[in-house]
Amino acid sequence: MTDKQTAKPSEAQLLLSQLLFGKQLTYALSGIARLGVADHMDATPQAIDAIAAKTNAHAPSLYRVMRLLASMGVFKEGPPRHFALTQAGELLKSDAPGTLRYFAMMFGDEWTTRAYEHFTDILRDGGDGVTKAYGKHVFDLLAERPDQLATFQAAMTSGSTMAGRAITEAYDFSSITLLADVGGGHGALLAAILKRYPDMQGVLFDREEIVASMPEDRFASMKGRVAIEAGSFFERVPQGCDAFIMKHIIHDWGDEQCRTILQLMREALPSHGRVLVCDMVVSEDPGPTPAKMLDIEMLVMTVGGKERTEEEFRDLFASAGLRLSRIVPTARPICVVEAVPA
After folding, report:
1. Is 49 exposed, middle or buried (0-12, 13-18, 19+ CB in 10 A)?
2. Residues designated as active site
3. What is the pTM (predicted TM-score) of this model?
4. What DSSP designation does 176 have?
5. Do both 181 and 272 map to the same domain?
6. Is the CB of residue 28 less than 8 Å from the CB of residue 104?
7. Residue 199 in contact with residue 166, Cβ under 8 Å?
């Protein structure tokens, strides 16, 4: 053998090989989440056969997957073929605070994975993977798939629960009387804000099929303070509000569609009103950031959606008659991007 053939892999080769195996980790986490494995575990090691019996899984296959995830810190193995939850693994429990179970399930859903099959074509022509795979926009597709829509909404609700505390701790809502959460899903963010500000009233606004599936007890302790409205934010927004908030809505759409939404809000705002966009902001940091990762998800899954820089937000707001007034960071990667009438 030559020296080249017997040489150990370089650091660059090891790094790239590890990155290429990201698919295996995504599917491993998604499968474990879908089986509900973590719901049957705790910090006490259990035999793989017992875990498999509780989750109706094939024990030898389950062992190989959990062995991989244990090597990444999701589980802890010991004694041999026994596994316990780590702090990371706890986040795969259905009822864990800040659960990521539904995100893990969603990332393995067929509508997301088929979209990525078209990645090279996306790079060539700038289209999105969902339209290439199914011939329709992602939200139109999900409306036809109630089971996958339910998983998507559960993931969004858990995301809103995690973000809600960070947003309410970072941003002062005390001067707002009536706040509309546009594209507010099942109301987790609005509920968090109203709980912290008991004198505020709110409007939850989203598509008919979304608000119809909202948990009945979401605003149980806030009777008389919340109005529920169904509609499209491309056609109208709630009236009479002195502020609008949108979490992970603007990043779903291209500039033209966002401009339509923001112009409707601008027309409805009083002179002292404001628009609050809760999204990640792409910084000038050359290193890896959550915003850059999520930006690729938007590239593949949406028509023109993206994570924006401060300058891109500034230009987008200006095109809709608004002015970027400030960006308020939170304890999580999400920021509150505040705009006021220009």
Report:
1. middle
2. 251
3. 0.91
4. -
5. yes
6. no
7. no
Report the distance separating Cα 211 and Cα 142, nearest Å.
15
Q: Are residues 176 and 247 in the same domain?
A: yes
- The tokens of 315 are what? 């230009």
Determine which helix (DSSP H) or strand (DSSP E) holds 341, and give its type and residue range.
Answer: strand 334-341
CATH label of the domain that carries residue 85:
1.10.10.10
117 inside domain = no
The CATH code of the domain that includes 167 is: 3.40.50.150
For the record, the structure tokens of 83 come out as: 């596994």
Domain end among 42, 71, 103:
103
User: How many separate domains does the chain show?
Assistant: 2
Asked if the structure places residue 141 within a domain, the reply is: no
Q: In what order do the strands lie in the sheet with 46-47?
A: 46-47, 82-85, 75-77
Residue 142, domain member (yes or no): no
Per-residue pLDDT of the chain (342 residues; tens, 9 = 90+): 455 555 688 999 999 998 999 999 999 999 999 999 999 999 999 999 999 999 999 999 999 999 999 999 999 999 999 999 999 999 999 999 889 999 999 999 999 999 999 999 999 999 999 999 999 999 999 999 999 999 999 999 998 888 999 999 999 999 999 999 999 999 999 999 999 999 999 999 999 989 998 988 999 999 899 999 999 999 999 999 999 999 999 999 999 999 999 999 999 999 999 999 999 999 988 999 999 999 999 999 999 999 999 999 999 999 999 999 999 999 999 999 999 999
CA-CA-CA-CA dihedral for 23, 331, 311, 317, to nearest 10? 110
> How far is residue 242's CA from residue 226's CA, in Å, rounded to a whole number?
15
